[in-house]
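>> received
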Amino acid sequence: MLNDNPADVDALMQCKYTGSEHTVAETIPEKVMSIGENLQIRRFVRFAEPTNVAYVHGGGTRAVLVNLAVEGGIDATEIGKNIAMQIAAMNPKYWDKSLVPQEDIDHELEVQVALMNNDPKNANKPDEIKKKIAAGKMNKFYADNCLLQQEFVRSDLFSGSVEGYIADAAKKLGGSVKFVNAVHFITGEGIEKKQEDFAAEVAAQMNMGKA
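>> returned
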């Protein structure tokens, strides 16, 4: 993948396997026979630049690749590793609040209003008031679901958000670091996807609040 930069899995399968005249597609059956386990290439990612830090978690069940823009000639490996650990532990749905699609924001606002409609303390409040209360809860939504707005899990290193940690750690090293992108692969992800309807989601959040 590093040498040929294939566009997708199909292209990768036609690349020559390293140290061999055979393609990847031709080599995989041989590897399956030799190790006695089925092997399939489902997905991959390749970031050419600027700085990449890889991290494998949970005995190989999770793999994270973090892509950073680094200035000042500093070594941002530790920063990248800590971000990757955050992603593996918290599995954020979005990298930054600016990346949350408007339809997801609207959906979350609807969920919050629905929760209030089912709460005797808030059910009789005017709709406009409910909408304002729901909008006020979006910061918590971002903190729960967006990587850079999440509370940094390594409180021994920094107390605050992930974006705050990145800025603080880079400053201490005498440079600057910007989170660009990341990929989080989880074993089996995408093979089966659980579907929940809107009513079930509201009910689930209500039950969480009672726990």
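>> The mean pLDDT is 88.
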